[in-house]
Each structure stands twice: as C-alpha cells, then as structure tokens.
Amino acid sequence: MMSSNFVFFTATATLFTISSAAPSNDGVTKLTLPEECQGKEFCHIKPDGYTELEDLMNSKLPSHLIQRSGDKTDDSLDGLEVLSDESDWHNCRYTTTKKVWYLRVKKNSVTQIIIQTKLLRQEVVEVKCEPKRNARWPCFEDLLKNLQFLKSSCVTGESSHTLYFWDMDKEEVVAETVQKPSSCSCMVSYI
C-alpha cells in the first residue's frame, strides 16, 4: 500500500513539470498535488505554482469563454456548506456547496489542471444528501407507514457538467464533461 502511494505521487509530480511563458528561476513551473487532495478526484486547494500559469492560460482562452464567464467571483462563499431550509425537511435534507476546483485526478492517475483565472472562473455547485448515521435513510415516512411492501431512502444524484482544462503539452484549453453531485431525491422501491 505504501509503495503505490509513492508511485502515484511521483507520477503526479512528473506530470506537473511544464514549460511556461512566465518561468520561475530555472525556467520551469512546477505544480504539486497538495497533500489534502491525495486520493480525491477534485482538489479545491490552489497548488503552488498555479499563479504563474494564469497569464499563459488567459492568453489562450477563446473569447466566447471570457464573455460567458463574466465577473461572478465571490471567494467568501467557496466551500461553505448550506443546509437545506427546514421547510423542505419533510423529504430529504441536503447540503449545497459552492466549490472552485483547481485540479482533477482521473481514475488512471492522470492529473488535469482546471482553469481558474480572473478571466474564466468555473464555480461548481454541489448538492448532496445530508449525511446521518447511515448513507441512506427513510424519507416520506408518513406517506409510506401503512405500505409494508415499500421502502424509501434519500439518494444523491449526479449530473454532467462541462469544465475547461489546461492541456500542458499542447498549451491549449480543452473542454471535458465530468460528473458531479447535483441533487438529493427520495427513491421509493419494493422491499
């Protein structure tokens, strides 16, 4: 187990060595996956060296992305979890979180840089079922209490979301669709 983590970290560090129009002292900008993001698909922590890439990424952004993005940055809400309103608790309680991701580690251990600059800000809103003791818990219990053959549970659903990534080798913007938690629904099924 220890050796696979070492190999993953080494591969990640190697992938993040790139040439940049805004070089550091040795002419190379290096990004390192923050420790807090190890083992996660998305990383919300801005890695060291990211700022040096921003001018290069901005210079390659297509104008339609810049126009679409506008000025919608409010870092004060980044990562803040908001519990659903109590009036909605008859169904499934859920949390809504606005996130700004900087890196994505794909299942094949390839790490991608998500473009987050002053010209293109990609905020993602996640909606997840509010965790309790179990991953799933009953919902609409008052409606189902006389129906012994049905059960219900709150389930987090996902949806597709397009993100724009920086291709380090080609020095260009690439769009890719990712899955993100987007809803909390009451699922009813037979026992």
Descriptive account of the structure:
It is built from four helices and ten strands, in the order αβββααβββββαββ. It has helices at residues 2-15, 50-60, 63-69, 141-144; strands spanning 17-19, 28-30, 42-43, 81-83, 94-100, 103-105, 111-114, 123-129, 150-167, 172-190. The strands form three sheets. Strands 3-6-7-9-10 form a five-stranded antiparallel sheet, with no helix packed on it. Strands 4-5-8 form a three-stranded antiparallel sheet, with no helix packed on it. The protein has a two-stranded antiparallel ribbon with strand order 1-2. A hairpin with a 4-residue loop joins β9 and β10. The longest helix has 14 residues, at 2-15.
Record keyword descriptors for this entry.
single chain, 191 residues, alpha+beta, Cystine Knot Cytokines, subunit B, three-stranded antiparallel β-sheet, 4 helices, 10 strands, elongated, disordered N terminus
In N-to-C order, the SSE pattern is HEEEHHEEEEEHEE
* Range of helix content: 10-25%
Q: What is the gyration radius calculated from CA atoms?
A: 21 Å
Q: State the secondary-structure class.
A: alpha+beta
Count of discrete domains: 1
Q: Which strand-content bin applies to the residues?
A: 35-45%
What spatial order of strands do you see in the largest sheet? 3-6-7-9-10
How many individual helices?
A: 4
CATH homologous superfamily descriptor: Cystine-knot cytokines
Any idea what the shape is? elongated
Q: Which CATH architecture? A: Ribbon
- What's the total count of β strands? 10
Overall average residue pLDDT:
76
The CATH class turns out to be Mainly Beta
Which stretches are poorly predicted, pLDDT < 50 over at least 5 residues? 1-28
Distance between the termini: 39 Å
